[in-house]
Specification:
This protein has 619 residues and is an alpha/beta fold. The protein is built from 19 helices and 10 strands. The model has no long low-confidence stretch (mean pLDDT 81).
């Protein structure tokens, strides 16, 4: 196969792909907002067609003024001209108001589609580098660059309106072409020049649009990186490191490099676009001039009236504009195929985790037994096992401490337990049933978790703890009291309506790391789930606050199963069961006393290594 044939095959393939993507895009758009799409089509048909009403009746009115001057006809043409324009304007304004209202609804629907997909995606999938970058790119193009289904809903109506305008223009000048055909070669020559001028104007206009779109695409790719640097500047928590380590110049240089890239792209766009713009404008003016010459010749020869001359010249001007506008929409749609392909790739990203349908058994006795049966796990894209052949079991009411060095697999164990990931090998069962067979949301409802990198939100204190807009205040206050937040409440008027942080409220309260950790603990307690998973829950607390948490720990978690992860060995003394992780395996399990008797074991090594820094023995 020759290179030309190969290129032709690729172009056909891209056309087929574009047709398939737009069939789906417009199908989705019609299904979600068919009435909005219909209103847009009607609005653009009115916008495009209205001038032709004025052209037609203006020509009739002019001919009547220069001809018979029939009062009846003059009144009729004037009434139709003004009344028609008034009616079309009124209908157009009414349709525009309805379309603008529906535009908001359609935008909300699109946001809901995108947000729902984001929430439904497995955490493990979203954490993959390829999917993460795809998500950032689609977010940038959808919400910042305006390349979304709502913008695409504009292209189709404009294109249909432009085609309608082209048809009306041809209909308006057809009589003139028929009348001038007797002049043969002269008419053909002029018509050929006019067609050539229209083609050049449209072609250059489309090329100018293509230049802008190519530039915008490269800028959009670069802006993903620029937005990352802007996030550093906007996150005041990072400001400490930036100042202490004097990273300001480096950060500004990196940010300005992205701006310089955009500036150079815009400069190239302007330079490259100038010739297209000049040629397009020149071709349009020449075409209009030729039209005037041709219609003027026809008027001089008595073939057309002065009103007809006005009708034909203005119709050809509109023909040029509609052809250029329609061509630009085709170019835009062609370029937006890449965006839509990414958009649908994100929407089509499958959830890899098995979604079961079994309801979680609501046991009166609260007996839930979870077993890790030869569980191994590798993170996506990694060949190294984070967990290897882990066997563990525990029941409701038990309190287990998980200890080990950094990277030993403790946090991974928590992620598997609450199904943020599924095992690579082995199974996890609850009451003898593989947890993958349970309804995912029902299974998640069994767990309250305080992650090591937990997050609070810029909502009210009560909403952060209850994770809901409406809640029982007494339950929230009780959870805050158990977490040691009585003083915070007293200092802020005992109000659960206190807004945290100033992201959305200038009167928001900035909480310390220790206060945030207590609120996160209260959130876990307030949920009332039978399993409580705590990953370094007191890392940000001072020794006194940590002691208070430990002292009331049983009151805090009541009779619920608790898995407690900590690097501080002394903080595990209140747990009767301790599992020691090392290099992804469970190497020891038992009480503090029994593990300390194994002087050659990992627990004894970790305990004594920490004890020496305190100048005394913890035991």
């Amino acid at each position: 196969m020759s290179a030309a044939e190969e290129q032709k095959k690729r172009e056909k393939g891209k056309i087929r792909k574009a047709a398939h993507i737009y069939k789906r895009a417009f199908g989705l758009m019609w299904r979600e907002a068919g009435d909005y799409t219909a209103l847009l089509i009607l609005r653009w048909l009115l916008i495009i067609c209205q001038p032709y009403w004025g052209i037609w009746f203006s020509a009739r009115l002019l001919d009547e003024i220069l001809g018979n001057r029939s009062l009846e006809r003059l009144v009729m043409y004037t009434a139709l001209l003004l009344g028609g324009n008034l009616a079309v304007n009124f209908i157009g304004q009414f349709v525009s108001v309805l379309a603008d209202h529906k535009s908001y609804e359609f935008g909300q629907k699109q946001n809901r589609i995108f947000g729902k997909k984001l929430m439904e995606l497995d955490y493990s999938v979203l954490e993959e580098e390829r999917i993460h970058m795809l998500w950032k790119r689609v977010v940038r193009e959808t919400f910042n660059d305006g390349k979304n289904l709502q913008s695409l809903s504009q292209c189709l109506p404009i294109l249909l309106g432009s085609l309608a305008g082209v048809g009306l223009s041809v209909a308006m000048v057809w009589e003139f072409l028929v009348q001038m055909r007797e002049y043969g070669i002269l008419t053909f020559f002029f018509a050929l020049l006019v067609i050539l001028g229209i083609w050049v104007s449209g072609k250059c206009g489309a090329a100018l649009n293509r230049t802008w779109l190519e530039c915008n695409r490269s800028i959009s790719e670069n802006c993903v990186q620029r937005d990352g640097y802007l996030d550093y500047f906007n996150d005041y928590e990072r400001g400490k490191e930036i100042r202490i380590y004097q990273l300001g110049k480096l950060m500004i240089d990196r940010l300005m490099a992205t701006h310089h890239f955009n500036d150079r792209a815009l400069d190239r766009r302007s330079v490259k676009g100038i010739p297209y713009g000049v040629i397009s404008g020149f071709a349009e003016e020449v075409t209009v001039a030729l039209t005037y010459c041709l219609t003027g010749l026809g008027a001089l020869m008595g073939k057309i009236t002065l009103g007809g001359m006005t009708q034909y010249t203005r119709s050809i001007e509109n023909l040029i504009q509609n052809l250029r506008r329609g061509w630009q929409q085709i170019v835009t749609l062609w370029f937006d195929v890449d965006y839509l392909e990414r958009y649908f790739e994100f929407l089509d990203t499958p959830s890899q985790m098995q979604r079961g349908c079994l309801p979680v058994e609501k046991r009166v006795d609260g007996e839930y037994k979870i077993v890790f049966d030869h569980v191994s796990f590798r993170y996506p894209g990694s060949d190294t096992y984070a967990l290897k052949d882990v066997n563990l079991e525990f029941r409701v009411g038990e309190k287990m401490a998980v200890v080990g060095m950094n990277g030993s697999g403790k946090s991974t164990f928590i992620k598997l337990l609450c199904r943020l990931y599924d095992p690579t090998e082995g199974i996890i069962t609850m009451n003898g049933i593989d947890i993958r067979r349970y309804d995912y949301q029902e299974y998640l409802s069994l767990f309250s978790v305080v992650f090591q990198d937990f997050r609070l939100f810029s909502f009210t204190l009560g909403e952060n703890v209850a994770v809901a807009e409406s809640y029982r205040e007494e339950a929230v206050r009780d959870a805050l009291r158990k977490a040691g937040m009585e003083e915070f409440l007293e200092n802020h008027g005992n109000s659960l309506a206190t807004v945290l942080y100033r992201d959305f409220d200038k009167d928001g309260v900035e909480v310390s790391g220790g206060e945030a950790q207590k609120i996160a603990l209260a959130r876990a307690v307030c949920k009332g789930a039978p399993f409580v998973l705590l990953d370094e829950p007191t890392a940000a607390l001072d020794p006194k606050a940590e002691y208070e948490i430990y002292k009331r720990f049983n009151d805090l978690v009541a009779d619920r199963t608790t898995v407690y992860i900590s690097h501080r060995m002394s903080s595990c003394r209140f747990c009767g069961d301790i599992a020691v992780f090392h290099e992804g395996r469970v190497v020891q399990r038992g009480s503090h006393e029994s593990l300390m008797e194994e002087t050659d074991g990992k627990y004894y090594e970790l305990w004594t290594a920490q004890a020496q820094y305190y100048g005394t023995s913890f035991s």
